[in-house]
Amino acid sequence: MKKTLLLLSILIGVVSTANASPFKRVRNYFKNRKSVGMCRQKTLTRMSDEPVKKISTHGLVGCTALALITTHESGEQRVTMSHYPPDCQLKQTDALKQTRDQLASKDPSRAQCLVVLVPGEWTRDSEGEKVFAPKDHALTHIKALEGITHVPPIVSAYDPESRPRNKEHFPDFQVTLSPEGATWRSCGDGYRTHKI
Predict the structure, then answer these.
(1) Interaxial angle between packed helices 89-106 and 136-145, expressed in degrees from 0 to 180 and rounded to the nearest 10
(2) pLDDT by residue (tens digit) across 129-154?
(3) On the chain, which terminus has fewer CB atoms closer than 10 Å, C or N?
(4) How crowded is the C-beta side of 152, counted as CA atoms within 13 Å?
(5) How many domains does the chain have?
(6) Is-above-0.85 flag for pTM?
(7) Burial class of residue 43 (count of CB atoms within 10 Å of its CB; 0-12, 13-18, 19+)
(8) 135 and 158 together in one domain
């Protein structure tokens, strides 16, 4: 009986050790990724010697997503992403300004970029041409965001009524931090990758 228990414990030890590798890979996969839910803001930092990291948000059906991306000469990269519905945009702007102020107080030499993903709609421009543009409430929010960084925000509008159904496995908005630099992509422009 003791020999059977000993063999069984050795076998369990071998099996658990053999299965540790997949669990470790899954843990490492999620360690380098963050997902931002609605009415939330999260920050992801990548040091120069770390692997690629990604932060994303899903379910933008009329909501606004923001990403404040900062880089430093040392190679450190940081992105703060938020996802808020239209009735909480003031809260979103205030939270982002607070994050910006914290970063500036630590190191004013950081390069900063703000990417804003807003709901859009089809409308007519001054010449009567049909154009896709941010909705009116989104324009008000974009105006409130001016001055958060030294450069104007990068604005991308998406159509909440016709988001691509065949790309549901893609996040609506994603920022990737890598040794080559920061990139972003969104449902607002067909998931093309943009370098920052």
Answers:
(1) 20
(2) 998 888 887 887 777 777 777 778 88
(3) N
(4) 5
(5) 2
(6) no
(7) middle
(8) yes
